[in-house]
Write a structure and sequence with these properties.
- It contains nine helices and 14 strands.
- The protein has 460 residues and is α+β, with helices and mostly antiparallel strands.
- The protein has three domains: 156 residues, 2-Layer Sandwich (Beta-Lactamase); 93 residues; 155 residues, Histidine kinase-like ATPase, C-terminal domain (Heat Shock Protein 90, 2-Layer Sandwich), CATH 3.30.565.10.
- Strand 13 and strand 14 form a beta hairpin.
- Helix 4 runs antiparallel to helix 5.
């Protein structure tokens, strides 16, 4: 599985590295402790061998005996786990510690050289595993010297218990250390990637119009990236400004010709040339709508700028009041049922353009009533404009939203109003929708863009 989160990748890698390091440390410490304790045990057994060898003598009868007892009390306790044994190789007689009771150590047949020490693992008097250190010496002088095998054994179960206790203690300590390291690594990753969260919040603030640049005082590793982003944002703003200026120049350049055409239309009507006047007026309307369309397209290409929040209710009321005062619209009844708290993540100018086109379309076809309302839907809050006009057949509803399409060729209009509204909404990743209106005609609306709907692709 691929982890798409950089924070998760770093945490998983760090936790895995710490876990492996802790396991390896536990194994190494356990091995070192085992090596250390084996050295200690072996050293203790060799010391006992030396003490026993120093206390062996040959008596007047030629037999081997000890001239003093060993001081370790374990040799005096039956089956204590510490044993010694001396074998006279000439006679086969044994000397042994009281801890062996009436048993003996079954030494292997291989004989070490004189002075050498061999190590064996044997079964003890009650079947317990023993570690045995054996040494051969010559007791006496000259040809009468007696070869003697001295063996000291210890129960390794105690050694294994020590090793197990140490391993358990090490595991507990390393587990606590691992927990502390995991917390420290989690904090390190979280704090280390904190500047990226600041950049993400800064980009969101820029997108929502609350800021124009990323936050300052970023770490030097990512400061160059932030500077480049700020430069690109500044360039985009300058390009938007230049595009707006060009669009304003275009609109200003067409204003005078359109005004002249309007005067020509008025004079033609005064002379009774109503057909020609109507044709010229239709052409001038087409020109005006194309200018509006190009302005909308410029906004879409360069992004919606400015304050990215519009309160719906007051904006709708202002637009409805404007349309209601038009001389040819005063017979219409406007109903507003908009949630007072509804808001859209839109530039107010863009919202006014969209709603203006929807209201203009509704007033052109309504007989007596127009209703503007918000309602809840699966895609969010819908803002719809409905009328009581003739309506549109369901198969034609999708087609009417296409650019330049006019279902009623006899009515006024260019067929560009809804296309312009669609172009503007496309920048906000929403689209127009059409359906029959409860008033009997048609209603057209769109989901209000919310901030969470305007996140960039791939954000989490």
């Amino acid at each position: 599985m691929t982890l798409r989160s950089l924070r998760s990748r770093l945490q998983v890698l760090a936790f895995a590295a710490v876990a492996i390091a802790l396991v390896v440390t536990a194994l190494l410490l356990s091995a070192l402790f085992e090596r250390h304790i084996n050295r200690r045990v072996t050293g203790e057994l060799d010391a006992h061998l030396s003490r026993i060898a120093g206390k062996l003598v040959v008596n007047a009868a030629g037999e081997i005996e000890m001239n003093a007892e060993l001081t370790d009390p374990r040799f005096e306790t039956v089956f204590s786990g510490l044993y010694w044994q001396v074998v006279n190789e000439k006679t086969g007689k044994l000397l042994r510690s009281k801890s062996l009771w009436d048993d003996d150590l079954a030494l292997p047949a291989d004989l070490p050289a004189i002075g050498q020490i061999h190590t064996h693992e044997l079964a003890g008097p009650i079947g317990q595993p023993l570690l045995v250190r054996e040494r051969r010496i010559l007791l006496g002088d000259g040809g009468a010297a007696i070869p003697v095998r001295i063996a000291v054994a210890i129960d390794v179960a105690d050694v294994h218990a020590l090793q197990a206790d140490f391993t358990w203690d090490i595991m507990v300590v390393l587990a606590l250390l691992g927990a502390l390291l995991f917390v420290a690594l989690w904090l390190q990753v979280r704090l280390g990637l904190g500047p990226l969260d600041r950049i993400r919040a800064g980009v969101a603030a820029i997108r929502e119009g609350r800021s124009t640049q990323l936050p300052p005082d970023l770490p030097q590793e990512i400061a160059p990236l932030a500077e480049e982003i700020d430069f690109l944002i500044a360039e985009q703003h300058r390009e938007i400004e230049r595009a707006g200026n060009r669009a304003g120049d275009l609109a200003h350049g067409l204003k005078t010709p359109l005004t002249i055409l309007a005067g020509d239309v008025r004079r033609l009507r005064e002379k009774g040339e109503t057909v020609i006047a109507a044709d010229i007026e239709a052409v001038s309307q087409i020109m005006r709508r194309h200018v509006e369309r190009q302005l909308a397209l410029a906004r879409r290409r360069h992004g919606a700028g400015g304050q990215m929040r519009t309160q719906i209710a007051p904006a709708v009321e202002r637009l409805v009041n404007t349309f209601a005062r038009l001389p040819d619209k005063q017979h219409l009844r406007f109903e507003i049922e908009v949630d007072p708290g509804a808001a859209a993540a839109m530039n107010p100018d863009d919202f006014n353009d969209v709603m203006g086109n929807l209201l203009e379309n509704a007033t052109r076809h309504a007989r007596a009533a127009i209703r503007v309302e918000t309602r809840d839907a699966d895609e969010g809050t819908l803002l719809v404009v409905g009328d009581d006009g003739p309506g549109v057949a369901p198969p034609q509803m999708h087609r009417m939203l296409l650019r330049g399409v006019r279902l009623d060729e006899k009515s006024e209009g260019t067929g560009l109003g809804l296309a312009i509204a669609g172009d503007i909404l496309e920048a906000y990743e929403v689209a127009l929708c059409a359906r029959p209106s409860p008033l009997g005609g048609l209603e057209i609306g769109f989901p209000l863009p919310a901030l969470q709907q305007r996140r960039t692709a791939g954000s989490r």
